Amino acid sequence: MVGRIAAVSIVDAIAADLRSRVFSGDLGSGEALTETDVATSYEVARPTAKASIEKLVAEGLLDRGTHKTARVVDLGPESVRDIYLARAYLESEVLRRLARTKNVPQGAVQANRDIAALTSGAPLDVVEPDMRFHTSLIDAVANERISRMYRSLVGEVRLCMVRIQSLHLLDTELILAEHQKILELIEGGQGEAAAELLDKHLGRARERLVAAMGGSAGPEAEYPSGLLQE
Fold first, then answer.
1. Phi and psi dihedrals of 227, rounded to 5?
2. What is the pLDDT of residues 178-225, one digit of tens each?
3. Are 95 and 182 in contact (CB under 8 A)?
4. CA 217, 219, 225: angle at the middle one, nearest 5?
5. Are the beta carbons of 206 and 200 closer than 8 angstroms?
């Protein structure tokens, strides 16, 4: 059987490549991205370049003031806190609701298996399945608006996660263990316990990244976990 090939517009293709370059660090924080540069690099017209840039502005990956050049967002400590607190509010309530019906999303189960199967040792390889784990939880409540709200944060969340992994701020085994425990708590109908563990899971990452970016870490940075063997 011949596989189905999805058609991708030139604007989407350029935006996808630019997005990949931002996440990989090829385009660093604060780096300018002009319409002329994009048009020249990809051999497209200026309006196409502009549309591609605007897609990343809408995703929160580029910042562009009126009549100003777009730049890769430079997330400071307080921006990191805002992003992580916003996702914590959404994800915590989602876990409570999933636990009421003991609904364990298979997408989250598979994402955690994919993390466990990683053999490269490259920290950045964790980002994609880690993001997929959390997104699968959100999508499992089958509420279009909640999924849309969460995806409005995804670009900035992924930027934070890339920084966390590239700086080796979290142990992959701890991420894996806490994900697994969250799923077990959902399956056991323990919504509050799942939400509490999620707060620790996200809080540890948040405050360690805040410290790495020059801010003052809160006590959450050193949250202990009894899920790993000493």
1. -90, -15
2. 999 999 999 999 999 999 999 999 999 999 999 988 899 999 999 988
3. yes
4. 120
5. no
State how far the Cα of 230 lies from the Cα of 227, in Å rounded to an integer. Answer: 9
Assign 62 to helix, strand or coil.
strand
- The token duo for 17 is 């490549």
| DSSP assignment letter at 63 | E
Q: Residues 21-31, buried b or exposed e (16+ Cβ, 10 A)? A: ebbeeebeeee
Beta bridge pairs of residue 89: none
107 to 130, 147, 195: CA distances (angstroms): 11, 15, 19
Local structure of residue 120 (DSSP, 8 states): S
DSSP 8-state assignment for residue 33: E
What tokens does 56 get? 């990343």
Report the predicted TM-score, pTM, of the whole model to 2 decimal places.
0.81
Angle (CA) 156 161 164, round 5° = 130
- How does pLDDT run across 135-155, given as a tens digit for each residue? 999 999 999 999 999 988 888
- The closest alpha carbon to 17, from 2, 27, 30, 31, belongs to 27
Cβ(20)–Cβ(13) below 8 Å: no
How far is Cα of residue 58 from the mean position of the Cα atoms in its chain? 16
